[in-house]
Amino acid sequence: MQDSEQQLNATYFKDLEQKRTWYSPVADVYYKVRPRYPQELINRAVVLAQLSSNATLLEVGCGPGNATVAFAQLGFSMTCLEPNQEFCHLAQRNCAPYPKVKICNTSFEEWELEADKFNAVLSANAFHWIPPEIGYSKAAEALQDNGFVILLWNMTPEPRYEVYQALQEVYQAYAPSLVRYEGGETQAEILRGFGQNVLNSGCFRELMCEQIAYEVTYSINDYLNLLSTLRRLEPQTNELLFAQLRKKLANFGDSVQLSFLSAVHVARKDK
């Protein structure tokens, strides 16, 4: 039993360390090239979570502020937690025009709980990093009665399937572990699983889900930069892979059309 507990602790602290450093090499690129969350979904989140103009939000894993800025522009008071130091510096810079936003360099797990304080707990493409046995219960404790959790998701942006088929040859040669294509149906199924996790926690009820199919167009350079925030490879392998991807993509023009599902899940704190 003791050995099992030691293994769990070792895994837990390894995960925390990973959160502090995982995106460090691509922190600036992440903010520039990751797709923003559609304003339509931001607006729906505000309505579904019944946020008044003086609402107080806790954001879990704010990153460089990709979603933070959209909510800050609406005038909310925000406490934003981010374990990665490079992301924190970027978030502080990007949120500088919004004095009601506070960026804290800490993980949600290590954050000292401020119970019954917030109207909503927000997380954008980050809550899956939190162990579920910690995340949902701690989020609920941080909320006032009838507060809401707001989970925003941008699924993986993918090119047209014919483009993916051409790129698949390159992945098979240089990084076979990265060969995968989700498509809309698979992404919808993943999102349903995320929503079910909220209900299964026993901490939230009245789950509301909305999603839209989103399309963006990237230059080849920006698309490769986007891939660098989604994949982690040894530098030499990464260089070879990206050089060959660039050649393949050039056969389809000087830009890449991407599509993915973007979604918001909103649920009320259980009594």
SSE layout:
Elements lengths: L1 H20 L5 H7 L5 H10 L7 E5 L7 H5 L4 E5 L3 H10 L6 E4 L13 E7 L7 H11 E12 L3 E2 L1 H14 L8 H18 L3 E16 H11 L4 H16 L4 E15 L2
Helix pairs in contact: 2-9, 7-10
Structural class: alpha/beta
Count of spatially separate domains:
1
First-last Cα distance:
35 Å
Query: What is the averaged pLDDT score?
Result: 91
User: For this structure, what is the CATH class?
Assistant: Alpha Beta
SS strand fraction:
15-25%
Which features does this protein show?
271 residues, Rossmann fold, 8-stranded mixed beta sheet, 10 helices, 8 strands, 45% helix, 24% strand
Any overview of this molecule?
This protein is 45% helix and 24% strand. It has 271 residues and is of the alpha/beta class. The protein has a single domain (2-157, 182-215, 260-269), classed as Vaccinia Virus protein VP39 (Rossmann fold, 3-Layer(aba) Sandwich), CATH 3.40.50.150. Strands 1, 2, 3, 4, 5, 6, 7 and 8 form an 8-stranded mixed beta sheet that branches. The model is unreliable at 1-13 (pLDDT under 50).
Q: Could you write a compact summary of the structure shown?
A:
Strands 1, 2, 3, 4, 5, 6, 7 and 8 form an eight-stranded mixed sheet that branches.
